[in-house]
Amino acid sequence: MVLMDNLPDQLIWEIFNRIKNTIDRNSVSLTCKRFYNLENEQRKRLRVGCGLNPANEALTRLCNRFPNLNKVEITYSGWMSKSGKQLEDPGLSILANICPFLTDLTLSYCTFITDAGLSSLSSCAKLSSLKLNFTPRITGSGIFSIVSGCKDLKKIHLIRCLNISNVEWLECLGKQETLQDLCIKNCRGIGEGYLVKLGPTWRNMKRLQFEVDSNYRYMKLYDRLAVDRWQKQWVPCENMTELMLTNCMISPGRGLACILDKCKNLEKVHLDMCIGARDCDIIGLAQNSKNLRAISIRVPSDFSLPLLMENPLRLTDNSLKSLAQNCTQLESVSLSFSDGEFPSLSSFSLDGILSLITTCPVKSLFLDRVYSFNNKGMEALCGSDYLQTLELTRCQEISDEGLEFVARYPWLRVLRLTKCLGVTDDGFKPLIGLCKLEQLVVNDCPQVSLKGVQGAAKSVSYKQDLSWMY
């Protein structure tokens, strides 16, 4: 019999690696002094927050205990003054001085961190990932100091950083040509027009997520003009695989429209309320991105279009048919409309939707407020040889007649229905006792009861909250 004391350190580290729960790892490390020391050496990640009190002293002890930390997350979500003081600028100096292997840093709801604290991280030569979520005292100057000091930054995520307006750091990133993953969400001082400053680094970008605060968008009419800064220039983004745009303005031939038909290796695209997107943009995307595997489109209603738009621009079946013809690896499709959309104004017809679903190997389909999709569409899905997950939200043209076809879908395993008014308990009767579905989720469908869905799948989740109707 081999005793634990005789096991080599490398084997014990491998055992520790298989323990994912932090509490369990802490418990194992307290078993004996050897395990305690080995765990201290092997621990690479640290997540702290409101329990860090007093902040600087506690952080110093943790960093000294775990000398090989490379990923640190500091989050004060839910913080109140009675929880003690938050970490301030000196705390980041501690990280810079004691954690020489730091590569990944996340700061969430750190409301007392300023540019001075962030600049102290510029000495972290190995830092490659920086994520800031609601750090209101940090400005563009702080971002510039860390970008100019850390030459190997590959990932930057900025979420609700309301005071970042100086964008010199984007130009600096453009010159370094190291950035691969950029996420900017609801940072009011950064418009999509500023992304042109990334320049040469576009060729290394693999992931871009850009979201504009919708409430702020319509207060700033000049944002429509910001996209003209691109001036129809060439954007070298051939290596991008994931593109997610929310509440962005797409000007014909300029701005972010330049990206859509230049990316040749896109695998995932998400366009949410992107005003100005036209058929030619999606067609260009489809013709160039042969490897596309997932696409999600939420279309704005006519009433959400700003007055600056000369004509209501809408996506039509031409976009879906081009995707069907060119994207033969498409596995996930999501189509939805905004709150203001009326059935008579639906951009996509049933024929257009079915052409995409029946031509491509679509495994996951999500439809929200797609009023053109009805019982005939549900019947047509019986011929799908790939569909495994179907999610329908506020699709009011579907009734029990259409739902009964689900029992004939050859590979469907997951069905989710939300706020569908035309569905009743009777529609689920063919599924009861069939053991076909792995999971059934029914949320806020007023004519469906818990009793009516019991036994319709191996796992059933039911929730009823009808406040959305009033």
Explain what the structure shows.
The chain is of the alpha/beta class. The chain has helices at 9-17, 22-29, 33-42, 55-65, 89-98, 115-119, 140-149, 168-176, 214-217, 223-226, 257-260, 279-288, 317-326, 350-359, 375-380, 400-403, 450-453; strands at residues 45-48, 71-75, 104-108, 129-133, 155-159, 181-185, 207-211, 242-246, 268-272, 294-299, 332-337, 364-368, 389-393, 414-418, 439-443, 459-463. Strands 1-2-3-4-5-6-7-8-9-10-11-12-13-14-15-16 form a 16-stranded parallel sheet, with no helix packed on it. β1 (45-48), α4 (55-65) and β2 (71-75) form a beta-alpha-beta unit. α2 crosses α3 (33-42), α4 (55-65) packs parallel to α5 (89-98) and α13 (317-326) runs parallel beside α14. The radius of gyration is 26 Å and the shape is globular.
Give a topology summary.
Blueprint: H1 9-17, H2 22-29, H3 33-42, E1 45-48, H4 55-65, E2 71-75, H5 89-98, E3 104-108, H6 115-119, E4 129-133, H7 140-149, E5 155-159, H8 168-176, E6 181-185, E7 207-211, H9 214-217, H10 223-226, E8 242-246, H11 257-260, E9 268-272, H12 279-288, E10 294-299, H13 317-326, E11 332-337, H14 350-359, E12 364-368, H15 375-380, E13 389-393, H16 400-403, E14 414-418, E15 439-443, H17 450-453, E16 459-463
Parallel strand pairs: 1-2, 2-3, 3-4, 4-5, 5-6, 6-7, 7-8, 8-9, 9-10, 10-11, 11-12, 12-13, 13-14, 14-15, 15-16
Helix pairs in contact: 1-3, 2-3, 4-5, 7-8, 12-13, 13-14
